Amino acid sequence: MRDMNADIAGAGRPTPMMEQYIEIKAANPDCLLFYRMGDFYEMFFEDAEMASRALGIALTKRGKHLGADIPMAGVPIHAADDYLQKLISLGFRVAVCEQLEDPAEAKKRGSKSVVRRDVVRLVTPGTLTEETLLDTRRSNFLAALARVGAGEGAAFALAWIDISTGAFRVAETAFEALSGDIARIDPRELVVPDQLFSDDSLRTLLRGLGPAVTPVPRATFDGATAADRIARYFGVATLDGFGGFSRAELSAASGALAYVERTQIGSRPALDPPRREAASEVMAIDHSTRANLELVRTTSGERRGSLVAAIDRTVTGAGARLLCERLASPLTVPEAIDRRLDAVAWFVDNPDARRGTREVLSSSPDLARALSRLALDRGGPRDLGQIGAALGGAVALAEGLGAADPTSGNLPSEIAAAVGALAALPPELGLRLATALADELPPHRRDGGFVRPGFSLELDEARALRDESRQVIARLQADYAEETGVRTLKIRHNAVLGWFIEVGQAHGEKLMAADAGTRRFIHRQTMAGAFRFTTTELADLETRIASAADRALQIELSVFADLVERVVAASASLKAAAEALAVLDVSAALAEIAEAERFTRPKVDRSLAFSITAGRHPVVEQALRAEAGDPFVANDCVLGPGPGESRGRLTIVTGPNMGGKSTFLRQNALIAVMAQMGAFVPAEHAEIGVVDRLFSRVGAADDLARGRSTFMVEMVETAAILNQATERSLVVLDEIGRGTATYDGLSIAWGTIEHLHEINGCRTLFATHYHELTGLADKLARVHNATVKVKEWKGDVVFLHEIVPGAADRSYGIQVAKLAGLPEAVIRRARGVLSRLEAADRQNPRAALVDDLPLFQSRPAAPSAEPAPPDPALGLLDTIDPDDLTPKAALEALYRLKAARAEGAKRE
Ligand SMILES: Nc1ncnc2c1ncn2[C@@H]1O[C@H](COP(=O)(O)OP(=O)(O)OP(=O)(O)O)[C@@H](O)[C@H]1O
Are 825 and 689 within one domain? Predict the structure, then answer.
């Protein structure tokens, strides 16, 4: 397409319409152009070819350009949303180009003039608003990444906006935290200034995010104009009222807003003012930990099997979105966590209120998204209806919850705040919507028929006239039939002729002859087998009908506009109510699952405790139940400091394959996440000192997209843990070092444990098959051993899934391999090899290593007691006096120095 303009100059001119198309397309080169022609969006040239392949629609042609056929493909307006959804999910961006005037208007300018058209909106993954294009249970964030400064001193920030609900947040981040923060926000689209897009240090990260990354001109991120842009958007003189923002945050917020403005063209979504999220208030969970723990989706990308799928009992889309958000961003401030837990506890203790709340909520529509569509002028009567219904529900809820706490003042603060927000809704708005809107609502305002009879006298009159005229037509038809004696005479309507009288051919000829004198029946059209007539009477009536119908529609549209205006004027309180409804849904849903699954309230404080009694893995437990398999075996886990200790413990978990080590590791990480998101947890008792960062290295996966092998990925992630974990962190490591040769792996695991114990001091679970490591428990004060119990029965192994103190002596790998169906011959051979290896180890046991190796030395601690041998080069240097040297002697001295240094290096 880009070259097309150049081509045209050299050849004959394209048609005026093609000229218009080419101009609009040239302004939107990175989008498929949906070019409105009547009831279709048409695409031409490469766009047509791409769309026809992507959507499986017919590729046709229309006219010629430069002597060649113009490929064309089109989608009908009424089905456009479905096609848009498919295109967006395939990574396309679409520019929607509408007709901006009636074709009749264009004709007035001359027969060759083209209808004015322009792009009214860019549809991109991060800027969707239509119900059909959105996933109800997932937020649809557009994020923007900004960097201020360069090199070591560079500051990063992210801003993210969901235009379908108005949510707008900003947060500072750091280079190392970027991938974790982006994973937490989970945006559908990330915009970055073009210089960051091509920055080497970010290339791997951005490439990993795929087509959802959109580079934009850096000017929109410009720090100097950022504050102005934001203030302008919200119509305020200064941002002071929104709180303080760093330069990087302003830049990101400005970049995100600019993109919203660019894609929405003239429309202005009703966004909340940007809210700052402090990194210290959210548990840091890096990208791979998030993926490993399968918080919101499994490693294969599905929601089924994830933690959120196992615990989500919300009944509204907004509730599901909030639950997901809370799960993705657990808190680190115990008071804030307690506020959430208080709300859940209240719903656990008040099952009737819970049931009532959930019942009202389940029929409560998506207030935030309906509001957003109306504010963007993309809403229909049903969106108004949804607001009305949600308002009705809100009033019922506020009353119901108030009644559940008649003494009032005893409601937990989160619920009280939600009830407050619901009670603050303008009562007249709900009433107005209820009286104005009909019971059954059409999807589009253009068809009318959504205003309740009795609401507007004028409308009722216009409608009566319109409908009555129709009866008059029926009567007229009977009269004409009577008058002409043609029983089959019909009065019909079509778009070209309007109302007309139709009779069969024979009757038509007769009528023309009989009527020749009076010319009462005016001939309009002769069809095959039929004649069409009109009369002055009918023409008059037609005008009256048309104007009455038109009038009725105009009145309806003005009622619509008035209602939208009232709704938009109340958007602040409606948004607060939408948030309140979501909070109530989440709290009640977490109470519901707590009761159904016997979850209990965790105690979260500022200690370093980590004490779980009878903890379970919520997903595995439900899966086992669904398969009607053995019940899940609950296990304890204590990682907090013991008596007299100031830092947390490291527990080495050994045990057979398939014994349940990974499950145990993950369940404790998940319990920490659940506790800090403000949910009850699958344990009899849980006490957790807030976890600032959670690290989990569970299971290995190649990252071929980034050109890293399994082992490399494992080492990169282990390095991140060793460099970042604090004593407040929780670290869960599964089989570190297994991806390489045994001795290398064992050595790396060994060094890692010592570093975690001595330097990081974090609470750690470490599962391994290197049994030699269990010896470390004797050497390192806070290292403990735990193992999974098994029973051997007739040479087979029976897993008990019970974690007990102590070390395993063997892995039962061969027994598990046998269970998995490895050929008998292989099993026999493996047994033979194993017994040889074990015999060799008995002669020269690796387990004894722990006694031989000195303790970990890399602590930046005490200088070593033994002085290092003096460097001979330094000794030699002392004997040289530069003032005494001739140039030749100086050169010789230099050679001698070099030699002495080489000698010293050898000794080191
Ligand atoms: N506490 C438990 N109660 C009941 N069943 C369990 C329990 N823990 C694990 N299981 C079952 O055992 C299976 C294997 O568990 P898991 O993957 O945790 O073993 P593992 O010791 O990590 O094995 P490997 O060393 O081979 O990775 C699980 O899929 C689950 O079905």
Answer: yes
Instruction: Give domain status of residue 682, yes or no.
Output: yes
Q: Are residues 619 and 723 in the same domain?
A: yes
Structural domain tally of the chain? 6
Q: Which DSSP letter does residue 462 get?
A: H
- CB-CB contact of 48 with 33 (8 Å): no
Query: For residue range 232-258, what is the model confidence (pLDDT) as tens digits?
Result: 999 888 888 888 899 999 999 999 999
- Contact status, residue 192 vs residue 206, Cβ threshold 8 Å: yes
One domain for residues 221 and 322: no
pLDDT per residue as tens digits for the range 690-703: 999 999 987 555 44
Ligand 1 pocket: which of 292, 299, 620 to mutate (most atoms within 8 A of CB) = 620
614 CB within 6 A, ligand 1: no
* Ligand 1 and 803: CB distance under 6 A: no
Q: How far apart are CA 716 and CA 699, in angstroms?
A: 14
Pair (148, 260) in one structural domain: yes
Mean pLDDT of the chain: 86
Q: How far is the CA of 14 from the centre of ligand 1 (A)?
A: 69
Tell me the two tokens of residue 311.
């615990």
* Euclidean distance between CA atoms 489 and 522, whole angstroms: 15
| Full domain range(s) for residue 488 | 457-547
Mutate to test the pocket of ligand 1, among 636, 652, 662, 738 (most ligand atoms within 8 A of CB): 662
pLDDT tens per residue across span 140-185? 999 999 999 887 788 999 999 999 999 999 999 998 888 889 989 9
**Inside any domain, residue 29:** yes
- Per the DSSP assignment, residues forming a β-bridge with 213 are 190
Claim to verify: residue 692 and residue 834 sit in the same structural domain? yes
Please identify, by atom number, the ligand 1 atom nearest to the C-alpha of residue 631.
4
Q: 540 and 639 share a domain?
A: no
